[in-house]
Write a structure and sequence with these properties.
By secondary structure, the chain is an alpha+beta fold. It has two helices and twelve strands. A five-stranded antiparallel sheet has the order 6-7-4-10-11, with no helix packed on it. A hairpin with a 2-residue loop joins strand 6 and strand 7. Helix 1 packs antiparallel against helix 2. The longest helix is centred in the last third of the chain and has 45 residues. It is globular, with a radius of gyration of 24 Å.
Amino acid sequence: MSSARTALRRAGLGTALAATAVLTAAGVASAHVTVHPDSYAKGATDGALTFRVPDESDTARTTKVQLFLPTDHPLLGVLVSPHDGWTAKVTDTKLKTPVKTDDGTITDAVSEITWTGGKIGPGQYEDFDVAFGQLPDDTARLAFKTLQTYSDGKVVRWIEEAAGGDEEPENPAPVLKLTSETGTSAAPKASATASAASASDSTARGLGVAGLVVGVLGLAAGAFAVVRSRRAQ
C-alpha cells in the first residue's frame, strides 16, 4: 500500500506541475500592449479604442507610453480621453494622400499620442482611451506600434507584426482587425468592455480544457502506477 500511495503522490505532483506550466505560459503570452476591442467594422464611426499597457518589470515603473497611429490608413477625428496623473501630447501629420469625406477633404490626421507624467507599477496596468470619428474602409487591419519607457531607462518596442500564418512575435504591436460587417456606430465603453469580457471568457475556457486534459493524464498515470505496484507485490 505504501508503494501505491507513493506512486499516486508522485502522479498528483506531476499533474500540479503540468497545470502550473500551462497557466504560466498563458500569462506570459498575454503580457504585452493590446487594443480593445480587437476588431471593428470597416469605416465605423463614432467609436473608441482602449490600449492596455501592462508593466512587465519586477522593479521599474512605466513612465512613458508612445502610441503611433497609421497614416497610410488614418483614423479621422481622433480625441484623447483625460487620464488621471497622465498628460497626453497629440501630434498631427500631413497626409500623403488626403481623405475625402462627406464633410470635405481631410489633409491632416493624428500620427502619435504620447502619455507622460504618470506611473504604472510592476504587476499593474493602465488603460488609455482614444476616440475616433471614422475608421478607414480600405484595409483589413491596423497596427499601432507602441514604445514603452521604464523608470530605469529601458524602452520596450512593441512594433513587430506577424506575417500570415506565422507565430506571434516577441514584441507584437497591437493590431485592430477591420471586418466587412455593416453598421457604422458603436458605443465606446460598451464595445471595449464586451470585447474584454469575451476575450477573458475564451481564455478561461481554453485554460479549463487544458487543465482537464492535464488532470485526466495525471489520474491515468496514477492508476497505472498503482497497478504496477500491486503486480510487483
